[in-house]
Design goal:
homodimer, 269 residues, alpha+beta, Fructose-1,6-Bisphosphatase, Chain A, domain 1, D-Maltodextrin-Binding Protein, domain 2, six-stranded mixed sheet, five-stranded mixed sheet, globular, Inositol_monophosphatase-like (chains A, B), Bifunctional fructose-bisphosphatase/inositol-phosphate phosphatase (chains A, B)
Chain lengths: 269, 269
Amino acid sequence: MIGWPVADPVIPTVAHPVLAQAAKAASDAFRAARERHDHAQLAEKTAVGADGTASMRLDLLVESAIAEVAEAHRINLLSEEIGFVDRGSAVTLVADPVDGTANAAAGVPLSAFAGALVRDGTPVEALTCWLDTGRCWHAVAGAPAPYRTSGRGELDGAAVSLLRPHPRNREAWWRVTSRAARVRILSTSCLEAMLVAEGSTDAFADAGSDTHRIVDLAAAMVAVPAAGGAVLDVRGRALEIDPDLTRRWSGVVAATPRLAEEIAGAVLG
Amino acid sequence: MIGWPVADPVIPTVAHPVLAQAAKAASDAFRAARERHDHAQLAEKTAVGADGTASMRLDLLVESAIAEVAEAHRINLLSEEIGFVDRGSAVTLVADPVDGTANAAAGVPLSAFAGALVRDGTPVEALTCWLDTGRCWHAVAGAPAPYRTSGRGELDGAAVSLLRPHPRNREAWWRVTSRAARVRILSTSCLEAMLVAEGSTDAFADAGSDTHRIVDLAAAMVAVPAAGGAVLDVRGRALEIDPDLTRRWSGVVAATPRLAEEIAGAVLG
């Protein structure tokens, strides 16, 4: 069992009730799951999710709590395991119930709830909460966020978080790494994106492995531009809120549009 | 400025007063430094440390608080920046005041105080505290710790934390990475070692870049064996508490002695 406490999320009072309730439900379900299940049980793959990958028990337990919030508000839900639940609403909650599930199930204290409210296909508000500590980042599209990116424009000497390398993108991974001053792999995309948004690191990227799903990027698509940064795909594909979760992107989340383009260029070589 | 709170360390009551007071002093100084200085001021390199690398303002502020504890107890101190302070005592406090300084100064919430009490050259007790959250890990040499490693013996499929790669160890870094199921770079050696000790990850290694100093490994040398694991150097060099902080190792911290040897073998190729 993982003995460490799970902090209540510190949710800004201005957050939309759907996002606030979803984050609280995720945190409560996350805590309950850790109190009832050991490492192996949390990580047990008990189903295949809508994104085509295996779902861990922890993902399903937390997603179930979020699904109840969407149902109570009679809005659509697009989430990692359950896929798209269409209630005919103009509003969709796009959620990654537990970003960094492998971290969370193992006990590495780096995992997050990430939710975005999408109206007619456009993300309009986002809330990301670091489940272990309760730190939250909230943003509304088109309004300045209460945090700012580092403002960095150059990859040379930057601090960059990356997805772990795979054989299929080894050379691209090294091209980015060899130009950065610092490289981290925290294995929690949504939390790493918020570290970019608040200026603690300069960028976060999938160096061309096409691993990202839209649920990994939706909250960042609101929060990072609101903080002065940019989110794009390495290969220039539009980041679309698509119910088909088998679609993949190589997301770049950066302190400035210029840095995002530089990283995409380095990945493409 | 970094706005997030710094939690008080939750120090086990059985910890030696020197370690308990040093951890509390480190946490208090860390909090004060973040309240007074912005990112750039915390990271400003204001001196050259005893390990031959530049000392950041944050390191010096926290080390100064720890040095007062060692002085009050009239014991020797071996610490990253100040080097060896010899008071003729049989006991030395070996400390890394802020492990993961670059994280801490940037705002990435992964940094730790790590201290070991050394008697006549042998580490006998250790305390590591994650400064951001207050989580602490305590151990006494020769006694079982209240946490256990994962017990994993094989590198193939393991979860491994690594120091970031350098051009000089790129191939060795990749050899380890290509056999592991998960790879992380958290950039905080002492905290990563404790994640191995508590079984949240299987191993942490410097893949042959000879970056580790003894202050990065001393606390792990007590805590990890007490939890069932092993600490060794990739090239078989003895891990010695040496006042000369320019000496370097490539440490491997693993869930079992067998896994430590497998990783060392993979690094050497």
